[in-house]
Amino acid sequence: MKKFHIKKGDNVYVNAGEDKGSKGRVLKVLVDEYKAIVEGVNMVYKHKKPTSESAEGNIVEVEAPIHLSNLQPICPETGKPTKVGRKKNKEGKLVRFSKKSTKKEEIK
Q1: pLDDT score, position 90
Q2: pTM of the entire predicted model
């Protein structure tokens, strides 16, 4: 199993690309492609064909995947982008922690 610095539900900051500087919540992580879908970031237009349910075709705006190297988690304490470290907690489980936080607590 691969270990990523970003998980589903994390608040992230986009540090590169067209949407640089924007923030959002991770909706899905695409493990094989090393990408994530972030709410409200990297929006593209998708053309829908007419179907039996909807007689007319339409154009829908959806989120496209963005590479994980262009994302940084946001520190819950400071609210700024941070690097992520890993350490074992009291139960011996490996957890992620914010390197910018003074308390070095787990990122949830």
Answers
A1: 87
A2: 0.83
